[in-house]
Amino acid sequence: MTRVLHVLDHGLPLHSGYAFRTRAIMAAQLAAGMDVRAITGVRQGTTATGANPEIVDGLTFYRTPGRLGSVAGLREMREIGALADALERLCENWRPDVFHAHSPLMNGLAASRAGSALGIPVVYEIRAFWEDAAVGNGTGSEGSLRYRMTRSLENRAVAAADAVVTICKGLRDDLVIRGVAPGKITIVPNAVDLNLFGSPLPRDAALARELDLGEGPVIGFLGSFYPYEGLADLIAAMPAIVEAHPGARLLLIGGGPEADALRAAAERSSAAPAIRFVGRVPHAEVERYYSLVDVVAYPRKAMRLTELVTPLKPLEAMAQGKMVAASAVGGHRELIVEGMTGTLFAPDDPAALAAALNQLLSRRDEWPARRIVASEFVRRERDWAGNVERYRTVYQRLLERGPIAASAAAA
Protein backbone atom coordinates (compact mmCIF):
# COMPACT_ATOMS: atom_id res chain seq x y z
CA MET A 1 0.00 0.00 0.00
CA THR A 2 1.51 3.33 -1.09
CA ARG A 3 1.74 5.87 1.74
CA VAL A 4 1.33 9.48 0.59
CA LEU A 5 1.70 12.65 2.64
CA HIS A 6 0.17 15.73 1.02
CA VAL A 7 1.98 18.94 1.96
CA LEU A 8 -0.46 21.86 1.86
CA ASP A 9 -0.81 25.58 2.35
CA HIS A 10 -4.19 24.98 3.99
CA GLY A 11 -6.97 22.43 4.05
CA LEU A 12 -10.20 21.42 5.73
CA PRO A 13 -11.99 22.58 7.78
CA LEU A 14 -11.18 25.81 5.91
CA HIS A 15 -13.27 26.17 2.76
CA SER A 16 -11.74 27.19 -0.57
CA GLY A 17 -11.29 25.79 -4.05
CA TYR A 18 -7.79 24.73 -2.97
CA ALA A 19 -9.15 22.84 0.05
CA PHE A 20 -11.91 21.17 -1.98
CA ARG A 21 -9.53 19.94 -4.69
CA THR A 22 -7.32 18.50 -1.97
CA ARG A 23 -10.25 16.80 -0.29
CA ALA A 24 -11.31 15.23 -3.59
CA ILE A 25 -7.78 13.95 -4.27
CA MET A 26 -7.34 12.47 -0.81
CA ALA A 27 -10.79 10.86 -0.76
CA ALA A 28 -10.27 9.31 -4.18
CA GLN A 29 -6.82 8.01 -3.23
CA LEU A 30 -8.16 6.45 -0.05
CA ALA A 31 -10.91 4.78 -2.07
CA ALA A 32 -8.22 3.51 -4.46
CA GLY A 33 -6.42 1.75 -1.59
CA MET A 34 -3.65 4.23 -0.70
CA ASP A 35 -2.71 5.28 2.83
CA VAL A 36 -3.14 9.05 2.57
CA ARG A 37 -2.60 11.86 5.08
CA ALA A 38 -1.85 15.58 4.89
CA ILE A 39 0.05 18.30 6.71
CA THR A 40 -0.76 22.00 6.50
CA GLY A 41 1.66 24.91 6.85
CA VAL A 42 1.75 27.75 9.31
CA ARG A 43 -0.87 29.70 7.32
CA GLN A 44 -3.58 27.29 8.43
CA GLY A 45 -3.64 29.29 11.64
CA THR A 46 -3.64 26.47 14.18
CA THR A 47 -2.06 26.10 17.60
CA ALA A 48 -2.12 22.30 17.41
CA THR A 49 1.13 20.36 17.30
CA GLY A 50 2.15 18.28 14.33
CA ALA A 51 2.06 15.11 16.42
CA ASN A 52 -1.70 15.37 17.00
CA PRO A 53 -3.71 14.79 13.83
CA GLU A 54 -7.11 16.32 13.20
CA ILE A 55 -9.74 14.21 11.45
CA VAL A 56 -12.01 16.19 9.12
CA ASP A 57 -14.53 14.48 6.81
CA GLY A 58 -12.71 11.21 7.46
CA LEU A 59 -9.35 12.66 6.32
CA THR A 60 -6.23 12.95 8.49
CA PHE A 61 -4.54 16.35 8.77
CA TYR A 62 -1.41 17.21 10.74
CA ARG A 63 -0.71 20.87 11.51
CA THR A 64 2.44 22.98 11.64
CA PRO A 65 2.48 25.21 14.72
CA GLY A 66 3.79 28.74 14.53
CA ARG A 67 2.84 32.28 13.60
CA LEU A 68 3.32 34.26 10.42
CA GLY A 69 6.05 36.89 10.51
CA SER A 70 5.63 40.46 9.29
CA VAL A 71 8.71 40.97 7.10
CA ALA A 72 8.25 39.79 3.51
CA GLY A 73 10.94 37.36 2.40
CA LEU A 74 12.04 36.48 5.92
CA ARG A 75 8.45 35.43 6.67
CA GLU A 76 8.41 32.93 3.79
CA MET A 77 11.83 31.53 4.69
CA ARG A 78 10.62 30.90 8.24
CA GLU A 79 7.50 29.20 6.89
CA ILE A 80 9.64 26.87 4.79
CA GLY A 81 11.85 26.02 7.76
CA ALA A 82 8.93 25.43 10.12
CA LEU A 83 7.18 23.13 7.66
CA ALA A 84 10.37 21.19 6.82
CA ASP A 85 10.99 20.64 10.54
CA ALA A 86 7.38 19.52 11.03
CA LEU A 87 7.75 17.02 8.18
CA GLU A 88 10.85 15.50 9.72
CA ARG A 89 9.18 15.21 13.14
CA LEU A 90 6.11 13.59 11.63
CA CYS A 91 8.22 11.00 9.82
CA GLU A 92 9.58 9.77 13.13
CA ASN A 93 6.18 8.16 13.79
CA TRP A 94 4.67 7.69 10.32
CA ARG A 95 6.92 7.54 7.29
CA PRO A 96 5.34 8.09 3.89
CA ASP A 97 6.66 6.66 0.65
CA VAL A 98 6.13 9.99 -1.12
CA PHE A 99 5.86 13.65 -0.20
CA HIS A 100 3.21 15.20 -2.45
CA ALA A 101 3.62 18.98 -2.05
CA HIS A 102 1.10 21.40 -3.50
CA SER A 103 1.75 25.01 -4.45
CA PRO A 104 2.56 27.64 -3.36
CA LEU A 105 6.29 27.19 -3.71
CA MET A 106 7.08 27.26 0.05
CA ASN A 107 5.51 23.80 0.35
CA GLY A 108 7.59 22.45 -2.51
CA LEU A 109 10.83 23.81 -1.04
CA ALA A 110 9.99 22.53 2.46
CA ALA A 111 9.13 19.07 1.15
CA SER A 112 12.35 18.90 -0.90
CA ARG A 113 14.42 19.96 2.11
CA ALA A 114 12.88 17.23 4.28
CA GLY A 115 12.81 14.71 1.45
CA SER A 116 16.51 15.16 0.78
CA ALA A 117 17.32 14.60 4.46
CA LEU A 118 15.10 11.53 4.75
CA GLY A 119 15.48 9.95 1.31
CA ILE A 120 11.81 10.39 0.47
CA PRO A 121 10.92 11.38 -3.13
CA VAL A 122 8.97 14.58 -3.73
CA VAL A 123 6.17 15.35 -6.14
CA TYR A 124 5.52 19.08 -6.50
CA GLU A 125 2.07 20.00 -7.83
CA ILE A 126 1.49 23.48 -9.27
CA ARG A 127 -2.09 24.72 -9.32
CA ALA A 128 -1.11 28.29 -10.26
CA PHE A 129 2.08 30.32 -10.22
CA TRP A 130 2.14 32.29 -6.97
CA GLU A 131 3.43 35.44 -8.63
CA ASP A 132 0.60 35.44 -11.19
CA ALA A 133 -2.01 34.72 -8.53
CA ALA A 134 -0.84 37.84 -6.66
CA VAL A 135 -1.35 39.92 -9.80
CA GLY A 136 -4.80 38.42 -10.35
CA ASN A 137 -5.80 39.08 -6.74
CA GLY A 138 -4.64 42.68 -6.94
CA THR A 139 -1.84 42.22 -4.38
CA GLY A 140 1.08 42.30 -6.80
CA SER A 141 2.21 43.69 -10.15
CA GLU A 142 3.72 41.84 -13.08
CA GLY A 143 7.43 42.48 -13.56
CA SER A 144 8.00 43.93 -10.08
CA LEU A 145 10.98 42.91 -7.96
CA ARG A 146 8.73 40.76 -5.79
CA TYR A 147 7.24 39.14 -8.91
CA ARG A 148 10.69 38.28 -10.31
CA MET A 149 11.95 36.94 -6.99
CA THR A 150 8.88 34.74 -6.57
CA ARG A 151 9.27 33.40 -10.09
CA SER A 152 12.91 32.56 -9.35
CA LEU A 153 11.93 30.67 -6.18
CA GLU A 154 9.24 28.81 -8.13
CA ASN A 155 11.88 27.65 -10.57
CA ARG A 156 14.00 26.49 -7.64
CA ALA A 157 11.09 24.49 -6.19
CA VAL A 158 10.51 22.83 -9.57
CA ALA A 159 14.20 21.97 -9.96
CA ALA A 160 14.39 20.46 -6.45
CA ALA A 161 11.37 18.17 -6.91
CA ASP A 162 11.70 14.66 -8.31
CA ALA A 163 8.52 15.01 -10.36
CA VAL A 164 6.21 17.89 -11.18
CA VAL A 165 2.45 17.87 -11.66
CA THR A 166 0.41 20.70 -13.17
CA ILE A 167 -3.36 20.98 -13.38
CA CYS A 168 -3.42 22.01 -17.04
CA LYS A 169 -1.54 22.33 -20.30
CA GLY A 170 -1.04 26.08 -19.92
CA LEU A 171 1.08 25.67 -16.79
CA ARG A 172 2.97 22.73 -18.27
CA ASP A 173 3.85 24.61 -21.44
CA ASP A 174 5.08 27.61 -19.45
CA LEU A 175 7.41 25.36 -17.44
CA VAL A 176 8.78 23.82 -20.62
CA ILE A 177 9.52 27.31 -21.95
CA ARG A 178 11.45 27.93 -18.72
CA GLY A 179 13.62 24.90 -19.49
CA VAL A 180 11.97 22.14 -17.47
CA ALA A 181 12.24 18.74 -19.17
CA PRO A 182 8.81 17.73 -20.52
CA GLY A 183 9.28 14.21 -19.18
CA LYS A 184 9.42 15.55 -15.62
CA ILE A 185 5.92 17.03 -15.87
CA THR A 186 2.57 15.21 -15.65
CA ILE A 187 -0.81 16.88 -16.10
CA VAL A 188 -3.48 15.89 -13.58
CA PRO A 189 -6.37 18.18 -14.52
CA ASN A 190 -9.11 19.56 -12.33
CA ALA A 191 -11.92 17.08 -11.86
CA VAL A 192 -15.20 16.67 -10.01
CA ASP A 193 -16.15 14.41 -7.13
CA LEU A 194 -19.32 13.03 -8.65
CA ASN A 195 -20.40 11.76 -5.25
CA LEU A 196 -20.90 15.44 -4.37
CA PHE A 197 -21.91 17.03 -7.66
CA GLY A 198 -23.14 14.19 -9.84
CA SER A 199 -26.83 14.23 -8.84
CA PRO A 200 -28.37 17.69 -9.44
CA LEU A 201 -31.26 18.74 -7.22
CA PRO A 202 -34.61 19.84 -8.68
CA ARG A 203 -35.25 23.58 -8.63
CA ASP A 204 -35.75 24.78 -5.07
CA ALA A 205 -39.00 26.70 -5.53
CA ALA A 206 -39.06 28.03 -1.97
CA LEU A 207 -35.54 29.44 -2.26
CA ALA A 208 -36.42 30.95 -5.66
CA ARG A 209 -39.39 32.75 -4.08
CA GLU A 210 -37.26 33.91 -1.16
CA LEU A 211 -34.80 35.50 -3.61
CA ASP A 212 -37.62 36.85 -5.82
CA LEU A 213 -36.19 35.28 -8.97
CA GLY A 214 -39.49 35.05 -10.81
CA GLU A 215 -39.59 32.68 -13.75
CA GLY A 216 -36.09 33.55 -14.94
CA PRO A 217 -33.99 32.69 -16.80
CA VAL A 218 -31.37 32.91 -14.08
CA ILE A 219 -27.73 33.64 -14.83
CA GLY A 220 -25.45 32.76 -11.93
CA PHE A 221 -21.92 32.93 -10.60
CA LEU A 222 -20.80 30.88 -7.60
CA GLY A 223 -17.31 31.57 -6.32
CA SER A 224 -14.90 34.19 -5.01
CA PHE A 225 -15.16 37.84 -6.00
CA TYR A 226 -11.62 38.59 -7.18
CA PRO A 227 -10.75 41.23 -9.83
CA TYR A 228 -9.66 38.59 -12.35
CA GLU A 229 -13.12 36.96 -12.33
CA GLY A 230 -14.49 39.87 -14.40
CA LEU A 231 -17.79 40.13 -12.55
CA ALA A 232 -17.99 43.87 -13.21
CA ASP A 233 -18.26 42.99 -16.91
CA LEU A 234 -21.14 40.64 -16.13
CA ILE A 235 -22.97 43.38 -14.24
CA ALA A 236 -22.29 45.80 -17.10
CA ALA A 237 -23.83 43.32 -19.55
CA MET A 238 -27.09 42.95 -17.63
CA PRO A 239 -28.99 45.95 -19.09
CA ALA A 240 -28.67 44.51 -22.61
CA ILE A 241 -29.62 41.04 -21.37
CA VAL A 242 -32.70 42.31 -19.52
CA GLU A 243 -33.73 44.33 -22.56
CA ALA A 244 -33.76 41.15 -24.67
CA HIS A 245 -35.03 38.87 -21.89
CA PRO A 246 -37.06 40.93 -19.40
CA GLY A 247 -37.39 38.07 -16.91
CA ALA A 248 -33.64 37.49 -16.68
CA ARG A 249 -32.03 37.64 -13.25
CA LEU A 250 -28.39 37.64 -12.17
CA LEU A 251 -27.58 35.68 -9.01
CA LEU A 252 -24.13 36.33 -7.50
CA ILE A 253 -23.19 33.85 -4.77
CA GLY A 254 -19.97 34.28 -2.84
CA GLY A 255 -17.74 37.03 -1.53
CA GLY A 256 -14.27 38.49 -1.65
CA PRO A 257 -12.26 41.67 -2.17
CA GLU A 258 -14.49 42.94 -4.99
CA ALA A 259 -17.78 42.51 -3.14
CA ASP A 260 -18.35 46.14 -2.15
CA ALA A 261 -17.33 47.51 -5.56
CA LEU A 262 -19.62 45.04 -7.32
CA ARG A 263 -22.58 45.93 -5.13
CA ALA A 264 -21.98 49.61 -5.87
CA ALA A 265 -21.82 48.91 -9.62
CA ALA A 266 -25.05 46.93 -9.43
CA GLU A 267 -26.82 49.76 -7.59
CA ARG A 268 -25.83 52.19 -10.36
CA SER A 269 -27.02 49.85 -13.11
CA SER A 270 -30.33 50.32 -14.90
CA ALA A 271 -30.69 46.54 -14.40
CA ALA A 272 -30.33 46.83 -10.61
CA PRO A 273 -33.77 45.27 -9.90
CA ALA A 274 -32.62 42.12 -11.73
CA ILE A 275 -29.39 41.59 -9.77
CA ARG A 276 -29.25 39.57 -6.54
CA PHE A 277 -26.31 39.22 -4.13
CA VAL A 278 -26.48 36.27 -1.75
CA GLY A 279 -23.08 36.35 -0.04
CA ARG A 280 -21.19 33.23 0.97
CA VAL A 281 -23.22 30.10 1.59
CA PRO A 282 -22.25 26.91 3.48
CA HIS A 283 -20.72 24.33 1.18
CA ALA A 284 -23.51 21.91 2.05
CA GLU A 285 -26.00 24.43 0.62
CA VAL A 286 -24.25 25.00 -2.72
CA GLU A 287 -26.36 22.49 -4.64
CA ARG A 288 -29.58 24.28 -3.57
CA TYR A 289 -28.30 27.44 -5.23
CA TYR A 290 -27.08 25.60 -8.32
CA SER A 291 -30.65 24.32 -8.68
CA LEU A 292 -31.85 27.90 -9.27
CA VAL A 293 -29.40 28.72 -12.05
CA ASP A 294 -29.95 28.08 -15.76
CA VAL A 295 -26.66 29.49 -17.09
CA VAL A 296 -23.47 29.76 -15.06
CA ALA A 297 -21.23 32.58 -16.31
CA TYR A 298 -17.45 32.91 -15.94
CA PRO A 299 -16.33 36.25 -17.45
CA ARG A 300 -12.66 36.01 -16.44
CA LYS A 301 -10.36 38.85 -17.49
CA ALA A 302 -7.48 38.16 -19.89
CA MET A 303 -4.15 37.98 -18.00
CA ARG A 304 -1.38 35.44 -17.39
CA LEU A 305 -3.24 33.81 -14.51
CA THR A 306 -6.41 33.15 -16.49
CA GLU A 307 -4.60 32.27 -19.71
CA LEU A 308 -2.50 29.59 -17.97
CA VAL A 309 -4.82 28.15 -15.31
CA THR A 310 -8.01 26.12 -15.74
CA PRO A 311 -10.69 26.73 -13.09
CA LEU A 312 -12.69 24.03 -11.31
CA LYS A 313 -16.09 25.73 -11.17
CA PRO A 314 -17.14 25.20 -14.84
CA LEU A 315 -16.70 21.46 -14.37
CA GLU A 316 -18.92 21.50 -11.29
CA ALA A 317 -21.54 23.43 -13.27
CA MET A 318 -21.41 20.90 -16.12
CA ALA A 319 -21.81 18.06 -13.63
CA GLN A 320 -24.86 19.89 -12.25
CA GLY A 321 -26.42 19.95 -15.72
CA LYS A 322 -26.03 23.71 -16.14
CA MET A 323 -25.31 25.64 -19.30
CA VAL A 324 -21.85 27.22 -19.13
CA ALA A 325 -20.81 30.55 -20.68
CA ALA A 326 -17.21 31.71 -20.26
CA SER A 327 -14.70 34.18 -21.61
CA ALA A 328 -12.35 32.75 -24.20
CA VAL A 329 -9.19 32.90 -22.09
CA GLY A 330 -6.73 30.03 -22.29
CA GLY A 331 -7.82 28.32 -19.09
CA HIS A 332 -11.44 28.18 -20.28
CA ARG A 333 -10.51 27.02 -23.79
CA GLU A 334 -8.89 23.91 -22.26
CA LEU A 335 -12.27 22.96 -20.75
CA ILE A 336 -14.89 24.25 -23.16
CA VAL A 337 -15.65 23.39 -26.78
CA GLU A 338 -17.79 26.15 -28.27
CA GLY A 339 -21.36 25.04 -28.86
CA MET A 340 -20.78 21.64 -27.24
CA THR A 341 -19.65 21.83 -23.62
CA GLY A 342 -20.24 25.56 -23.34
CA THR A 343 -20.38 29.00 -24.94
CA LEU A 344 -17.30 31.22 -25.29
CA PHE A 345 -17.18 34.99 -25.67
CA ALA A 346 -14.44 37.63 -25.97
CA PRO A 347 -12.94 38.59 -22.59
CA ASP A 348 -13.03 42.15 -21.24
CA ASP A 349 -16.01 43.01 -23.44
CA PRO A 350 -19.44 43.40 -21.78
CA ALA A 351 -21.13 43.83 -25.15
CA ALA A 352 -19.73 40.53 -26.43
CA LEU A 353 -20.74 38.87 -23.16
CA ALA A 354 -24.31 40.17 -23.47
CA ALA A 355 -24.56 39.10 -27.10
CA ALA A 356 -23.34 35.57 -26.31
CA LEU A 357 -25.72 35.16 -23.37
CA ASN A 358 -28.67 36.58 -25.30
CA GLN A 359 -28.03 34.13 -28.12
CA LEU A 360 -27.73 31.26 -25.65
CA LEU A 361 -30.94 32.25 -23.87
CA SER A 362 -32.75 32.41 -27.22
CA ARG A 363 -31.84 28.82 -28.08
CA ARG A 364 -33.23 26.92 -25.13
CA ASP A 365 -34.35 24.11 -27.41
CA GLU A 366 -30.66 23.19 -27.81
CA TRP A 367 -30.00 22.97 -24.08
CA PRO A 368 -31.01 19.37 -23.34
CA ALA A 369 -28.58 17.93 -25.89
CA ARG A 370 -25.76 20.24 -24.79
CA ARG A 371 -26.30 19.35 -21.13
CA ILE A 372 -25.87 15.67 -21.97
CA VAL A 373 -22.64 16.32 -23.91
CA ALA A 374 -21.15 18.41 -21.08
CA SER A 375 -22.11 16.05 -18.27
CA GLU A 376 -20.77 13.05 -20.21
CA PHE A 377 -17.49 14.89 -20.76
CA VAL A 378 -17.15 15.33 -16.99
CA ARG A 379 -18.05 11.71 -16.24
CA ARG A 380 -15.74 10.35 -18.92
CA GLU A 381 -12.69 12.59 -18.49
CA ARG A 382 -13.00 14.65 -15.28
CA ASP A 383 -14.21 12.29 -12.57
CA TRP A 384 -11.77 12.10 -9.66
CA ALA A 385 -12.37 8.38 -9.25
CA GLY A 386 -10.50 7.76 -12.52
CA ASN A 387 -8.42 10.91 -12.70
CA VAL A 388 -6.57 10.10 -9.49
CA GLU A 389 -4.90 7.07 -11.10
CA ARG A 390 -2.57 9.48 -12.90
CA TYR A 391 -0.92 10.17 -9.55
CA ARG A 392 -0.34 6.48 -8.94
CA THR A 393 1.69 6.32 -12.16
CA VAL A 394 3.88 9.23 -11.02
CA TYR A 395 4.42 7.71 -7.57
CA GLN A 396 5.32 4.31 -8.92
CA ARG A 397 7.87 5.76 -11.32
CA LEU A 398 9.63 7.51 -8.43
CA LEU A 399 9.46 4.54 -6.08
CA GLU A 400 10.97 2.24 -8.69
CA ARG A 401 14.03 4.51 -8.72
CA GLY A 402 14.55 3.80 -5.02
CA PRO A 403 15.10 6.15 -2.09
CA ILE A 404 18.80 6.84 -2.76
CA ALA A 405 18.22 7.98 -6.33
CA ALA A 406 15.20 10.01 -5.33
CA SER A 407 17.09 11.70 -2.50
CA ALA A 408 19.99 12.59 -4.75
CA ALA A 409 17.66 14.09 -7.32
CA ALA A 410 15.99 16.26 -4.67
CA ALA A 411 19.25 17.55 -3.25
Automatic annotation (TrEMBL):
CDD domains: GT4_WbuB-like
InterPro entries: Glyco_trans_4-like_N, Glycosyltransferase_grp1, PEP-CTERM/XrtA_GlycosylTrfase
Domain Glycosyltransferase subfamily 4-like N-terminal residue range list: 17-190
A UniProt-annotated Pfam family: Glyco_trans_1_4
Superkingdom of origin: Bacteria
SUPFAM superfamilies linked: UDP-Glycosyltransferase/glycogen phosphorylase (SSF53756)
PANTHER family: SULFOQUINOVOSYL TRANSFERASE SQD2
Protein name, entry field: TIGR04063 family PEP-CTERM/XrtA system glycosyltransferase
Organism name: Novosphingobium tardum
